[in-house]
Design goal:
- There is one protein chain.
- It contains one helix and six strands, in the order αββββββ.
- The chain is α+β, with helices and mostly antiparallel strands.
- It has one domain: 3-Layer(bab) Sandwich (minor pseudopilin epsh fold).
- Keywords: Membrane, Transmembrane, Transmembrane helix.
- It comes from Niveibacterium microcysteis.
Length: about 150
């Protein structure tokens, strides 16, 4: 009758040809990974910057759309010129709240009446780095649309 042992004893024999990675293999993988990350980082950075600029332009478009409503609510008229951009309206806030680094250029004055009607005109938004977008405000409601 043979006796079965529930737990066989393991020997302390070192197996030759053990699996694993050598230091050279690890360094090669690290080098390749670093090169790929170095190539991808500028593209990611550029994409993030474009997204920030696009978000800034969209914010400014919404503010122009809301400007008409703000004037109707406050009962005030406005002559929108380059000089008035920093001055508060009758509701105590400036016409636009520009994101950091953005600028606005208004070629000719745009008149907004207390009833919300406007004379129309162009507003150029300048993003950091000089990228510009021209918005056209068509009378009488001055809903902004981008110039082609």
């Amino acid at each position: 009758m043979s006796e079965s042992r529930p737990h066989a004893r393991r020997s302390n024999v070192v197996v030759s040809g053990a699996t694993g990675f050598t230091l050279l293999e690890l360094l090669v993988v690290l080098l390749i990974t670093s090169l790929l990350a170095g190539l991808a980082a500028p593209r990611i950075s550029d994409a993030l910057e474009r997204r920030r600029i696009d978000n800034g332009f969209r914010l400014l478009e919404r503010q122009i759309s809301l400007l008409r409503q703000r004037l109707i609510a406050s009962g005030g008229a406005l002559k929108l010129t380059q000089d008035i951009l920093e001055k508060p309206l009758t509701d105590g806030r400036p016409p636009f709240s520009l994101p950091e680094g953005f600028g606005v250029t208004i070629d000719r004055e745009i008149l907004f009446g207390a009833n919300g009607a406007c004379s129309g005109g162009d507003i150029v938004f300048v993003a950091p780095g000089g990228l510009q977008r021209r918005l056209i405000l068509d009378p009488p409601f001055c809903l902004p649309r981008q110039a082609q």
